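pasting for ref
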Amino acid sequence: MAANSSKPVRIAAPPPNNLRPVLDDIDRRILGHLAADARIPNNALADLVGIAPSTCLSRVRALRESGVIRGYHADIDPAALGRPIQAMIAVRLQSHARGHIAEFTAKVAALPEVLNVFFLGGTDDFLVHIAATGTENLRDFVVVNLSGNPDVALTETNLIFEHVRAGLTH
């Protein structure tokens, strides 16, 4: 009999995915600078928050791995890509379609006009942010992809005249 075979081996379970680390002042400052300019070099970011570059790199990596930083992206003007008309479309599903939420979300998010899909609590189930090539494209998107879907009970389209990106204040 082996000497350690009498004791069970305990393996700690990983924390649930929905738990976020507690952010300190340095983390918040790092996030504020990254929100303003995600392309900032690590050395410059470290200087701005007053820590060593190696510490900064470790903190950014930890924030990414924990899901606090969800990604980096280029904020491209849809009009520059031939899609000058933006709209937010509120979507309410039929009561019997509640079991199809994941499929609906995936199907809508895969459409070329769609920029964002927001799953909501409240009267409406979704807000779908789209960029269309013109009013006919917008109409066809709503009629074919939303109103033509038997799971959709109601849509309400609001045109976006201007979008101003807000900055983090804390």
